[in-house]
């Protein structure tokens, strides 16, 4: 019993520390963190699949709160239930709280400093690269045929050239997807590629 308790504590600490490291890279918000989330959670840890991460991103977009925080809550909930969701959320927001307190305490005195302005200009460029990198990765996984390409181009054009809120795009595509699934059946719906089973340490388990 004590061994199980120690193992459970280690898993909670591992969950917190993983989300803490992700939270440190908070510059740019959830979109800039997508590539980091995929690499750490779906790639290295294998706690979720890339398809699940995409689903969490979509839900996190239309629910209140920051996307990255919402995703971390979903992942923690899947790993260790409701306590895992709470620990995971605390892990990802802890660095932000510390960073915001430091900035609030010192930035006012240095915000007009030339070096500080150059530093933030560099951060903005880096954030742009992270967002593009994440977007390219998700496009490769989701745009798989002519139908999904058509949907992608339609949403892209509307998003770029109109002022429609993102939430309406997501709600609209949910409705369209349900209708197409009912009409086309298996020709539209595709099962996501199965990820290899893994143990709690992220090591692949041979069947």
Gyration radius from CA atoms, angstroms: 20 Å
Cα shape: flat
* Main sheet overview: none
Helix content: over 70%
Strand content: under 5%
> What is the number of helical segments per DSSP (H or I, 4+ residues)?
8
Q: What separation lies between the terminal Cα atoms? A: 28 Å
Q: How many distinct beta strands?
A: 0
Which class do the helix and strand fractions yield? Answer: mainly alpha
**Mean of residue pLDDT values:** 77
Describe the model.
The chain has 207 residues and is mainly alpha-helical. It has a domain at 2-142. The protein has eight helices and no strands. α1 (2-24) packs across α5, α3 (34-44) crosses α6 and α4 (50-62) packs across α5. It is flat and about 55 Å long. The two termini are 28 Å apart. The model is unreliable at 191-207 (pLDDT under 50).
């Amino acid at each position: 019993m004590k061994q199980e308790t120690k193992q459970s504590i280690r898993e909670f600490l591992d969950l917190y520390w993983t989300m803490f490291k992700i939270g440190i890279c908070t510059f740019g918000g959830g979109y800039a963190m997508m590539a980091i989330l995929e690499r750490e959670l779906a790639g290295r840890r294998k706690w979720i699949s890339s398809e699940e991460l995409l689903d969490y991103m979509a839900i996190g977009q239309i629910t209140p709160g920051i996307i990255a925080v919402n995703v971390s809550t979903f992942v923690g909930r899947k790993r260790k239930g409701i306590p895992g969701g709470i620990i995971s959320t605390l892990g990802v927001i802890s660095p932000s709280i510390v960073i915001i307190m430091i900035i609030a305490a010192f930035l006012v005195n240095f915000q007009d400093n030339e070096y500080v302005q150059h530093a933030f200009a560099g951060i903005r460029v880096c954030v742009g690269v992270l967002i593009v990198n994440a977007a390219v990765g998700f496009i490769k996984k989701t745009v798989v045929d002519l139908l999904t390409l058509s949907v992608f181009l339609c949403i892209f054009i509307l998003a770029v050239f109109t002022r429609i809120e993102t939430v309406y795009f997501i709600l609209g595509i949910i409705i369209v997807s349900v209708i197409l699934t009912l009409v086309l059946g298996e020709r539209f719906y595709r099962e996501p590629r199965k990820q290899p089973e893994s143990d709690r340490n992220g090591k692949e388990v041979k069947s």
